[in-house]
Amino acid sequence: MPAPGQGAARTSAYGVVQYPPDQRGEAVELAGTTAECERVDVAALRGTVVVLNVWYADCPPCRVEAPVLQQIADDYADKGVHFVGINTRNDSAEAVRAFQQTFAITYPSIRDSDGSALLALRQRGVSASATPMTVVLDARGRVAALAAGQVEGSTLTGLLDDTLSSKLSVSQ
């Protein structure tokens, strides 16, 4: 499952892959509109670590991990980490807002009913073969890690800590 830089990657048995800084490929170019009609452009978040979470409203594992993701988003906000959801189904704006309200989600979610966000990920070697899926982008916007399926809190915090520790080495 190498992909992003097409080189060596660390893969775990749980669908988690980490890419060393020199194997991360090009930055992800991804933008879209939320259910509240606000524009989100991941490029505007360069210089920070970004967590992308692919989900949809009726996805049982998405519902289980949502409170965990929000807690981590809160815990890591002071470290400059930003979260952006990507709603991959043709959920109505009302369904997206209801999900966000039910799980007290405060970070934005792009509505990807046309598939352009998933295409942007695919162009950087990330195929959303499972939902949910969580992608960690480094400070340069490159794929540093991904977790296919429901991500455990300790797994995501470990990925974030690893990515943050390499954040200052922007030249890599």
UniProtKB/TrEMBL annotation:
Q: Which residues form the Thioredoxin domain?
A: 1-165
Tell me the compartments it is located in.
Cell envelope
Chief location category: other
UniProt keyword terms in alphabetical order: Cytochrome c-type biogenesis, Disulfide bond, Redox-active center, Signal-anchor, Transmembrane
Q: What is this protein called?
A: Thioredoxin domain-containing protein
Q: Which organism is it from?
A: Kineococcus glutinatus
